Amino acid sequence: MKSRERTSILLYALMVYTVLQFFWWSYLIFDLYHDIFLLQGTLAELSEGESVVQIKEELTKKRWMIIGEGGVFLSIIILGFYLVLRARKREFSLAKQQTNFILSVTHELNTPLAAVKLNLSTLLQRKLGDEGRVKLLKMSSYETDRVIRLVNNILTTSRLESKGYKLNKTNIDLKNHFQAYLDQYSSQFKRNLNVHFDVHNSFTTDVTALEIILYNLVDNAVKYSEENQSVDIQFVQKNGILEIMVTDRGKGISENEQPQVFKKFYRIENEETRTTKGTGLGLYLVYNFVDILKGRITINSSEMGTVFTVSLPEQ
After folding, report:
1. Rounded-to-integer distance, Cα 295 and Cα 274, Å
2. For 127-136, 176-185, 192-201, 273-282, which range has the lowest pLDDT when averaged over its residues?
C-alpha cells in the first residue's frame, strides 16, 4: 500500500512538473519573439525595409501559432496523464479483486476440506452406530459438493473467457425438472425455498446454462439471507418468454453497487472482514449466461431485500 502511495505521489509530482515546465518554455518563447520584434522594429526605423506595423502583425501571428500549437501539446500531455492514471486505477482495482478472489477461494476450499477431514478422523477414531456414521457421511458429502460447485464455477468461467460457450438446446418440462432440483437444494442446505410455477408448456433452452443461472441466483439469495428466512423463487412462462424471479430478505444492495455486482470477482464485503461465503463468480456467470441466451436481468433492491428478475426467450 505504501509503495502504491509513493508511486501516486511521484506520478502527480511529475505531472505538475511537466505542466509547469510547459508554461515556462511557452513564456520563454513568447519573450524571445518579443525581443526579436523589438530588434526588427529598431532595424526598420534605421532602414527602408519592413514597416513596424508589418513586423507587429507578424509577431501577433507567431504568438497565435504558439498558443494554438501549445494548446494542442498541453491537451496531449493532460490526456496522456489522464489515461495513465485511469489505467493505473483499473490495474489496482483488478489486483485487489484478484487478491480477494484468491483469499475467498482459499477460504472456500479450506473450510469444507477441513470439515471432511474432521468427519473422517471421527469415523476412524470412534466407534459410531449406523446413525452417527450416516450423519457424518452426509455432512462430508455436502462439504464435497461445495468444493465441486466452486471448481465448476471456476472452470465454467475459464471456458467462457477462452473458448466461448456453445448452446445445447433441449426441450424440457420446467416444473418437473426444476422442482426436483430445488427440492434437493433445499434439503441439502436446510433452507426453506418457496417455489411457485406458473408454467403450462415445455420450454426449449440450454439446460446447463439455465441451471447455472438458477443455482447461482438461489445460492446468492441464500448467502445474503438470515438462516431462518425463506427465499422465494417464481417461474412465469408467457408468450415464449420464461421469467424467473428470485427474492431474498437480506439487507439489500445499494444503487451504487448494483451495476458492480455482475463484475468478475466483485464482492460487496472485503475478504478480510466478510461474513458471507462466495468467490465473486456466481453473479458474473449469471450475467454472462443470460446474455448468451439473449435474455436480460434486472435488480430491484431495498432495505427489505433484493429481487433478481431474469427474462429468457425460448431458443
Report:
1. 31
2. 273-282
* 232 touches 306 (CB < 8 A): no
The residue type found at 260 is Q
Residue positions counted in the chain? 315
Q: CATH second-level architecture of 169-313? A: 2-Layer Sandwich (3.30)
Tell me: the pLDDT tens digits for 94-109? 777 677 667 667 767 7
Q: CB of 277 within 8 A of CB of 223?
A: yes
**Helix and strand element counts for the chain (H, E):** 6, 7
Q: Give every CB contact of residue 19 below 8 A, 6+ residues apart in sequence.
A: 74, 77, 78
In degrees rounded to 5, what are phi and psi of residue 265?
A: 75, -5
Domain 103-162 has CATH 1.10.287.130: yes
Nearest to 153 by CA among 55, 65, 284: 284
